[in-house]
Amino acid sequence: MFYRPKDGHDLPHNPFNALVTPRPIGWISTRGADGRDNLAPYSFFNAVAYTPPQVMFASLGAKPDRPGTKDSLANINDTGVFACNVVSFDLKEQMNHSSGGWRADVDEFELTGLEKGQCTTIDCPFVAAAPAVLECELRQIIKLEGAANYAVFGEVVGIHIDDRFIKDGMFDVTAVKPVSRLGYRDFSVVENVFEMGRPGE
């Protein structure tokens, strides 16, 4: 089949995000200027540069109590910092529960029963049970096409790695079993890996 997105697809569900998969989940933690903490997953997320290390996530849509935006983006606009928590298979239920459209005054750490850690380089909480955490300083926010679509870019200024997941000097993703987002309501988990050298290596 072929279709133009502006004309519709005539399928029961939009296939777009099922075609760009798997996508890592940026479980973004923030602290507002009012001191309230927030935690929410974003499936349009990835690393975008090595030097300096940078990540991005896209905030799409708005909440009734946050006109034109969502809690994460509002907090980052106010404070200029955020943390990305790696979602392991063991944390999948808490991650999913934190995705609800909760009021701005709801602390998703408390809602999901997750213990907080305190970032070292920025004033921000993180998921203490996360296998790895990226502490980020905001570099830019870009308005995307669409009513409330924004891309947030941050420089990674601090990294936490749970020592249990370092094996032979490398981060062992098969032990972490990171969760990724597929299309529709589907998720996946990394359990098997294979290695391929680049040409000339």
Percent helix among the residues? 10-25%
Q: In angstroms, what separates the terminal alpha carbons?
A: 40 Å
Q: β content, as a range?
A: 35-45%
> In the CATH scheme, what's the topology name?
Pnp Oxidase, Chain A
Q: What is the count of distinct domains?
A: 1
Overview of this protein structure:
With 201 residues, the protein is mainly beta. The chain has one domain (13-189): Electron Transport, Fmn-binding Protein, Chain A (Pnp Oxidase, Chain A), CATH 2.30.110. Helices cover 14% and strands 36% of the residues. The chain has helices spanning 16-19, 71-79, 92-97, 108-112, 173-176; strands at 23-24, 26-31, 37-42, 45-49, 54-60, 81-85, 116-118, 125-127, 132-143, 149-161, 166-167, 170-171, 179-181, 187-189. The strands form four sheets. A seven-stranded antiparallel β-sheet has the order 3-2-6-9-10-5-4, with helices on one face. Strands 1-13-14 form a three-stranded antiparallel β-sheet, with no helix packed on it. Strand 7 (116-118) and strand 8 form a beta hairpin. It is globular. 29% of the residues are buried.
